[in-house]
C-alpha cells in the first residue's frame, strides 16, 4: 500500500510538470520546448533557468534573440529588474538586426526607469534610463513606444532637475547664501521646468540680498549691487510672479543702501 501511495505521488508530480522530462533531455529542441512551456504556464523561475542555458547553446543563431527576449521578460515578471535590464541589453548589443531589437531597447530603458530612485537618492539608474530613451527615440522616432518614451524621459529629466534644485535649496535653507547663489545660477543655465526655474530665480535673488545683508561692511556694496541685478532680471522674466512682493521689500532695502554711495559719486562728479 505504501509503495502504491509513493507511485501515485510521483505520477501526480509528473502530471503537474509535463515539461520535466523534456527539460532533462539532451535534445536541444526538447529543452527549448520545455523552457517556453514553463514560460506560457507562468513558471518563470523554471523557464529562466532553462533559457539561461539555451542562450549559450544558441549563441550566434537567430533563435538566441528570441530566447534572450523571453528570458528578460521572465526575470522582469519575477521583479528581478537588474537581470532583466542586462538580458534586454544583451539582445540589443548582440542581435541588433533582430525583430525584437526595438522592443528590447525600449524595455531595457524601462527597467532603468523602474529602478530609478527618488530624487533624494543616487540617480545613476535615472541617467542610464535617460541615455537609453534618447537612443531609442533617435533610432525609432516613430516607434511603437515613442510616446511612452517621451513621457518617461520628461519625468526622469524633471527628477534630475529636482535633485539639483533641492541641492541649491539646502544651502539656501541653512544660510549658506554664497553657495546658494552659485548653485541656483548654475541650475538656471540648463533647467527647463518653468516652475522650478521661477523659484530658482527668486531664491537666487533673495540669497544674494541675504548674503549682502550679512556681509562685512567692505563687501556689502558690491553684493547689494549683484542682488539688485538679480532682482531686475527676475522682474523682466516674471513680471507677475507671486514672489514679487517678497523681493520688492528686499529691493527697497537694497536701494536705500546703494543710494548713499551713488549720491556721493554723483556729487563728486558734479564738482
Molecular structure report:
It is a single chain. The chain has a domain at 175-263. The protein has 271 residues and is mostly helical. The protein is rod-shaped, with a radius of gyration of 31 Å. Helices cover 80% and strands 0% of the residues. The protein is built from 13 helices and no strands. It has helices at residues 2-16, 20-23, 28-40, 44-57, 62-77, 81-94, 101-115, 124-139, 146-173, 177-190, 194-213, 217-237, 244-270.
Q: Short summary of the structure?
A:
The protein has a domain at 175-263.
Q: How do the helices and strands line up, and which of them pair or pack?
A:
Layout: H1 2-16, H2 20-23, H3 28-40, H4 44-57, H5 62-77, H6 81-94, H7 101-115, H8 124-139, H9 146-173, H10 177-190, H11 194-213, H12 217-237, H13 244-270
Helix pairs in contact: 3-4, 4-5, 5-6, 6-7, 7-8, 8-9, 9-10, 9-11, 10-11, 11-12, 11-13, 12-13
Keywords:
rod-shaped, 271 residues, mainly alpha
Cα-based radius of gyration, to the nearest Å: 31 Å
Rounded to the nearest angstrom, the distance between the terminal CA atoms is 124 Å
Helix content, binned percent? over 70%
Q: What can be said about the biggest beta sheet?
A: none
**Overall geometry:** rod-shaped
Beta strand %: under 5%
